[in-house]
Each structure stands twice: as C-alpha cells, then as structure tokens.
C-alpha cells in the first residue's frame, strides 16, 4: 500500500492542482523536506516537468514517486518526452512512461507505447509499437533497449529497418547510431530495387557500404541477372564481393537465352558499373547448355567475355574434351568463339556414329567455332593427330596418324573435310582391324565421368518475401509528426 499523497510544488502554469489540498499539505511538506526528501533537488533536476494536467507526489515501497497524468511533457539531459502519463521514481532514479510516447533527442526521435528510463545509466527500454528515427534510417520493433550515452540500440525482438536504399528485417540485432553500423541475427533479409539478400546474420558499416553476411547466404543481383549463395559473403563500396564456404553462382545471359552455373570453394567478384570480373578457386565447376569445365581456378572478364581456366583444367564442349595447364575460352554473346590451350594440350572428340575417339595433341591447340560447331583446329609446334576415318557408307575404315610442326584440321558441319600439315611431316594410315578403336597417342586424357552436370538444387530464396507493410499500426504521434503512412510508396515490387 502506498502512503498518503503529498502534492509537490507546481512546475508549470498548465498543471491543474486541487488548491485546498496543496494549502493543507504545504507546511507538512516543508517540515519533511530536510529529512524525508533529502536529495530531492538533485533528483528533480534530472527530470524537469514542462507540462502535465495533474501531478501527485507519493511515498511508496520503491521510494518517492512523482506521478504525472494527461498531456505530459518532460525533459532530461538526454531528451524531451511527450506521453499520456509518467511516473518519476526519484530514489530509484528511474522514469516510466505510458501511452502515445514521443521522445526527441539531439540525433533521434523515438515513439513507443511504454518506456522505462534509467537516469543514471541513460539506458531506456521501449515496448509496444516502437519506432526509432535517426538521420538516415527508420527502425521498427516491439522491444528496444537504447543507450542515449553510447547511441547503441539492442533489438531482442524481430525488427524492421528502412532507409533510402531499401528494407531489412531480422529476428534481432544491434544498431550503433553514432557509427552508422549494425549487427543483425536470425532470418536476415534485405530488399531493394536492385537486389535481394538472405543470411543467418549480417554485420554492416552502412556509411562505408561494407557488409559481412554469415550462414546460408543468398544474394539475388537483379541488375546483373546473377544469384550467389555461400556460407559467407563480404561486400564493400568498391563493388568487391568474396563468397566463401561452398560458393555457388547462377548467371543468366543478357538476352535470357543462356544460363551459366558456377560452384567452387570460394569466389571473388569485382563489379564496376555494369561490368563484372570474377575469380573462382578450388574445385571450380562451370556448367552451361553447350560447355562445362572443371579446374582449380577460373577467371572471367565480362568486358571481353573471356574465361581463363588454370590448375589441371578440363573442358567439355558437346562431344569434345580439352585438357591442358591453361585453357582460354573466348565467348561472343555468350557463345564460344574459340578455345586456346597450352602447353601440352590434348583434345579428344568422340565420334558416336562409329564409337571412336579422335585425338589431337601438341604444345598449343587452337579451336575455332562457327555457329556453335567446330570450324577448324590447329596444333603447333610438335603436333600429333590420330583421326578415325569412315567409308562411303559411314562405317569405320581405319585411322590416320600424323605428326608435324603445324597441323590444321578443317571441319564442315562437324565432319573432318581437310588436313593441312607443314614442316617435319610424318604420317601413317592404319588399316581397319580388330582393336584399332583402342589406339591411343601419348598424353591421352578422356574423363567424361568428371563432366559437371546441371545442378539439381536450385539457387532460390528460402524465406518468404519481405512484407510491404510495416509490422504494426503506426503510433498517432509518429504519423502526425512525419506524415508517413502504413504503406511504403517507394517499396520495390
């Protein structure tokens, strides 16, 4: 039970008091001041009453309390507060407020249904419909701890973060207002007009455009028609991204006709304007409709449409396999224009009509394509060719084996039409016989079982889309002071 009411001095002309009670209690109040209200002046100075319809002072088990009701306006060293009612626990150095709360500090505005503020630590707990507005962002949650001294906000409940770039939602987080940085945890989602992101957690320095994404990361770069997944992604303002812990990428060609999949242990991407370059490392797999590859590293430059594969690379194009320490893939409008490989390259082409493996090797191997088919191959120096021939009925009819410093093989609609050899030419024709199909030249490599297949697991988001609507009906003072509606007009579809 609380002790009898003591009415405190009037602090505002708009405070309405019951004058008889004030006249009766004022002498008692003056007598008790040195003993029962020791230190009251310091406590009062921490919270200044600017306005209230009613003010009561009571002594309770918690100590002295000032109760303010109706159109309350207070100020502290950190902020001014408007609310429906507030209790100032003077001995506990605590302020509690209820109903239609609006707090204004030097850098922030905060709205909530309930608030508890520790005057010593300068830490506040906001509950109910909480909205925080800084210079650069709006935050929404149902529970927020905020330190006015350090400008750090803790969100133990689900939150929504909005700025001019887009919307972020997460299960919990920290926001460091002075540093414009944040940590978000649990089902983190970011959506704007150009990209969509998912992760288990995220750290960001927003001013520097620096981001770290951790755990089940999914990134959809809609502008560049690229999707990325991995266990960790780092991104900064220069356009650099690093994807680690099982990176996967899907990229759709500009005309939407072709899709490239890439997966590796880790991946680096550099974006400048609309141009992308990337490097993939360790167990690099690439798959497209026409070709696929396996290598230790892969480098791609969007400006010149060029892949470079290194580290025991293997490339498959239709029925052909190419191996060599270095393989260059030159694309043209996402189709292979030519292949270049050296040194000690080896190409195998499977002729499925006669079940034979044609073979070409040499120091440097160049393969030109026209309309998606091989136009010619040339190998130099020290070229070596084994090519199985067919008779007029299309049946196997022996093989040609040749060595020379330069060999050029010309094709027409996938069939060998001509062979040109120069300098130190030596050759032999092998008659058709049992076992000739197994003939191999030195350095033979044929590993179709390693050819990457189109990934079955889709690169898709795992969470439902970020809601367009904010999580609750906005407080009256917020909508009245900002003019912001429940719906976000600029939210991308």
- Strands, count: 36
Low-confidence stretches: 1-41, 485-493
Query: Helix count, per DSSP?
Result: 3
Backbone shape: rod-shaped
Helix content: under 10%
Q: Would you tell me the overall average pLDDT?
A: 86
Termini gap: 57 Å
Please state the CA-atom Rg, rounded to the nearest Å.
Answer: 37 Å
**Computed structural class:** mainly beta
> Strand count, sense and closure of the main sheet?
36 strands, antiparallel
Query: Per DSSP, what share of the residues sits in E-state strands of 2 or more residues?
Result: over 45%
Which helices and strands, and how do they pair?
Layout: H1 19-36, H2 40-46, E1 48-51, E2 54-60, E3 63-75, E4 79-89, E5 94-105, E6 109-118, E7 123-133, E8 138-147, E9 152-155, E10 159-163, E11 166-170, E12 172-176, E13 181-191, E14 195-205, E15 210-221, E16 226-235, E17 240-244, E18 247-252, E19 259-264, E20 266-272, E21 275-287, E22 291-301, E23 306-310, E24 314-317, E25 320-323, E26 326-332, E27 335-342, E28 345-351, E29 356-362, E30 364-370, E31 373-380, E32 383-390, E33 396-404, E34 406-412, E35 415-422, E36 426-430, H3 476-482
Antiparallel strand pairs: 1-3, 2-3, 3-4, 4-5, 5-6, 6-7, 7-8, 8-9, 8-10, 9-12, 10-11, 11-13, 12-13, 13-14, 14-15, 15-16, 16-17, 16-18, 17-20, 18-19, 19-21, 20-21, 21-22, 22-23, 22-24, 23-26, 24-25, 25-28, 26-27, 27-30, 28-29, 29-32, 30-31, 31-34, 32-33, 33-36, 34-35
